[in-house]
Amino acid sequence: MQNTTKWKESIIAFSLLSIFSSSALSDDNKPDEQQIKSSFGGNVSVAYDTNIYHKDDHRSVRNISWNGSLHYSFASNYRAYLSSGGYRALEDKTGDYFTDSVIGISRSNLFEFGDTATVGINGQFTIPTSETSRKDELITAFRVAVPLSFQISDANISVSPRLRKNFHKYQTAGGKSLTEWVYSLSTSASYSFQDLTVGISALAGNSISYQGTRRNSITYGGSVFGSYQLTDAFSFSLSASTSGFYLDAEKGTLGDIDIFDADRASYEARISYSF
Predict the structure, then answer these.
(1) How much is the CA Rg of the chain, to the nearest whole Å?
(2) Are 270 and 67 in contact (CB under 8 A)?
(3) Measured between alpha carbons, how far is 121 from 143 in angstroms, rounded to an integer?
(4) Distance between CA atoms of 120 and 111, rounded to whole angstroms?
(5) Residue (of 268, 273, 271) closest to 52 by Cα position
(6) Whole-angstrom distance, CA of residue 82 vs CA of residue 69
(7) How many Cβ atoms are within 10 Å of 95's Cβ, its own excluded?
(8) Which helix (H) or strand (E) holds 231?
(9) Where does the UniProt annotation place the signal sequence (predicted)?
């Protein structure tokens, strides 16, 4: 049951990644003066996601999720932000659940090179508000990311290596060894046609336990999304997300990477309000 809950949270995270990636790419292209002028801002969204199995099928997953974020721009290229959310599970272990919250600070323009390339940096702390983090007695986690953004023709590309350090009360919980380090790579590409933005995003990574053992597979997820700006404040988006794992060659098998695993796919409709 716990694995099912973690899978639901992972799919929601991948879906949010696609939406935030497209909006982040757009924000990075705004002049610094415009970012400073609008010091306070934020976003709230509500979504419905499903793996489109029949509701009587034991594999059926349906959720209503919500997310909110606040940000404050200060100085030049600096932004502080706070984000949190949750979801209502409509299948299996039904009920309302929170996802982890984060608080952080970012600098969008650490330095530039070439005609369009920009390197930024951000660091954030996790507030353990999810059921999984509370069960594992997570105190907090710190994650640093170094996003590289650039343009190819009219497409916006982002590549972001990330490193996370977890701080748990104990090194084990429920007979399992907890994760201390997580290293991952987040990528996204988007293209805009006036009010319509389409794109893809992907996230892959691995982890190391407190005992120094590495997971024997690389987990990955990705999504394809489209977002339409209904008004200056409201937008609507559709996305399809999937996830999987790639076995370590050191264990004697490579396995396969399924670009789109229909059995693990999730489809989402989301409406967002920005202010």
Answers:
(1) 19
(2) no
(3) 11
(4) 7
(5) 268
(6) 6
(7) 10
(8) none
(9) 1-26
Residue 149's beta-bridge partner residues? 118, 158
pTM of the model: 0.81
Rounded to whole angstroms, how far apart are CA atoms 135 and 176? 12
Residues 266 and 245: their CA atoms lie apart, in Å, by 16
For residues 98 and 203, give the distance between their C-alpha atoms in angstroms, rounded to a whole number. 22
- Distance, CA of 190 to CA of 171 (rounded, Å): 40
Residues found in the chain: 275
Q: Where are the domains of the chain?
A: 2-274
Q: How far apart are CA 7 and CA 26, in angstroms?
A: 29
- In the three-class reduction of DSSP (H, G, I as helix; E, B as strand; rest coil), residue 251 is classed as helix
Q: What is the CATH number of domain 2-274?
A: 2.40.160.40
Tokens of 105: 């600070």
Q: What is the pLDDT along the chain (275 residues), one digit of tens a residue?
A: 444 444 444 444 444 444 444 444 444 444 444 434 559 999 999 999 999 888 888 888 899 999 999 999 998 889 999 999 999 999 877 889 999 999 999 999 999 998 899 999 999 999 999 999 999 999 999 999 999 999 998 899 999 999 999 999 999 998 889 999 999 999 999 999 999 999 999 999 999 999 998 877 788 899 999 999 999 999 999 999 988 766 654 554 445 555 556 667 899 999 999 99
Where do the H-state alpha helices sit in the chain?
Answer: 2-28, 32-37, 131-135
Kindly report the number of other CB atoms within 10 A of residue 59's CB atom: 11
The contacts of residue 30 (CB under 8 Å, 6+ apart) are none
Tokens 């790639």 found at: 246
